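Propose amino acids for all 83 sites.
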């Protein structure tokens, strides 16, 4: 009789551990999915920021080039930009 009770107790403990493991596995899966979504959103935000900075840098270079050309060729910036 003692052995049956002991086996039943061990079986109950094993089932409760199996249930906890399943819940932990699902939770870990959700955590990974959330981390992937966050990483994707952050990468997209960084890409947008870099693209905006590159556009601003390109415009600044164009403006500087036009100013320099105008000064060197003794013309207005509008004339230099048209060249």
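Proposal:
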């Amino acid at each position: 009789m003692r052995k049956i009770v002991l086996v039943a107790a061990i079986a109950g403990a094993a089932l409760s551990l199996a249930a906890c493991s399943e819940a932990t596995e699902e939770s870990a899966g959700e955590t990974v999915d959330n981390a992937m979504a966050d990483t994707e959103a952050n990468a997209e935000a960084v890409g947008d920021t870099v693209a905006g900075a590159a556009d601003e840098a390109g415009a600044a270079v164009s403006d500087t080039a036009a100013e320099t050309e105008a000064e060197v060729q003794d013309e207005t910036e509008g004339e230099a930009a048209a060249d």
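The first helix runs from residue 2 to 73. The mean pLDDT is 77.
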